[in-house]
């Protein structure tokens, strides 16, 4: 249980965040995000829903193997098979948590679960006990608590704590709550549940009415000591409460809150960028804390005020949340050992010497082009290398693109398909269009391109561009990522990665589906 002055930050970017349509991530991408969450010093990382698919299981397991400073958690419905699978996935973790849940609102119990309230309580108790047979750290959530009856919530929470739950989570699953009312619900629960002092009370708010952060803060004022949140507010529908807003609200208004988090806020902006790049969901310029304009002063009066005394118009310092913190780490003359030890400092460890060599060769090639290499470049090299090592049907061997004023752009590529080389070429409205058309002239994937976005990994025109390509086929959506100092090559890599992901297939279960 946390000290009363500590607010536990439970990040669910990799689970609820990934439930956003189109935000599916690969294992390598999830690991990359988990590492930055660890640097941020979040207390708990909800790494996924282990039973959803073999891929989800492996992602949770590899995060459990790599992360040392944060608790690693897997979601599980209140079912034996879910709980056992979650336990297996988090077993390697230094600190592991099982998060089990069942719906408690009349509408969910009647229509989704088709269960009587007494049976829901019994199932909750059985599941918490089973989770406790695997680990000491068990969270129980009352799904759709925001629309549940208070008396029933008191009853099921008391039973869950008696069965061994150490954290009780009150989700506003459909984003229906209003701050005063939600704060009052938490106050009532803490007063009325007789064994409330034996667990940490948590909230998990969705943003359907734009109130997720406000509702979470109202709950904190009423005594909640864990908030569940995501980077950039990513999540189902309108998203979850945003981590950066919650953390900075509590930290900036220490005159009102007697608690704080242990988050190292300097990593907030890099974490936001990474999540945005990997998911392909851009951050709106006026987004609090992490939007490009969050610290920009346009009007003359504001600029004048800030120059005379920063606090006239600024309540936080841009550098405290990680703006302008690119740190120069390595250059053209750095050797293998410096490269390896910087990767280790970043928490990146390759499984084989061949992978490390491949990454070092890419680093040298990049250093020739770019001279200054930043942490973000190293992370991109690492995930590019890992992606290449993961088997895929398609690969890029060479490419040549012609782009000239007054001439139709043309792309010529040599592609690898199932181990055989093929030459393709096509014209397009621009070099990227020509590249994608050339690839499709061979592959004929039947995919729809849903999103194409380019971000610079660091600043400057010599920076690597990281391209996200989102493809859809038969309702399945994947994001491919490619990085290179040449954004046309990065685009081809991203497109090919997306094709590899789509060709791997596989079905994932949604945790909040009806089959409990
Ligand atoms: O929104 C929700 O209710 C959830 C639960 C599974 C915690 O995501
Ligand atoms: Zn949720």
TrEMBL record:
The keyword Manganese applies. Mn(2+) binds at residues 16, 204, 206, 240. Residues 7-269 form the Pyruvate carboxyltransferase domain. One of its GO terms (biological process) is L-leucine biosynthetic process. One of its GO terms (cellular component) is cytosol. It comes from the Bacteria. Belongs to the alpha-IPM synthase/homocitrate synthase family. LeuA type 1 subfamily. NCBIfam families: leuA_bact, PRK00915.1-3, PRK00915.1-4. This is 2-isopropylmalate synthase.
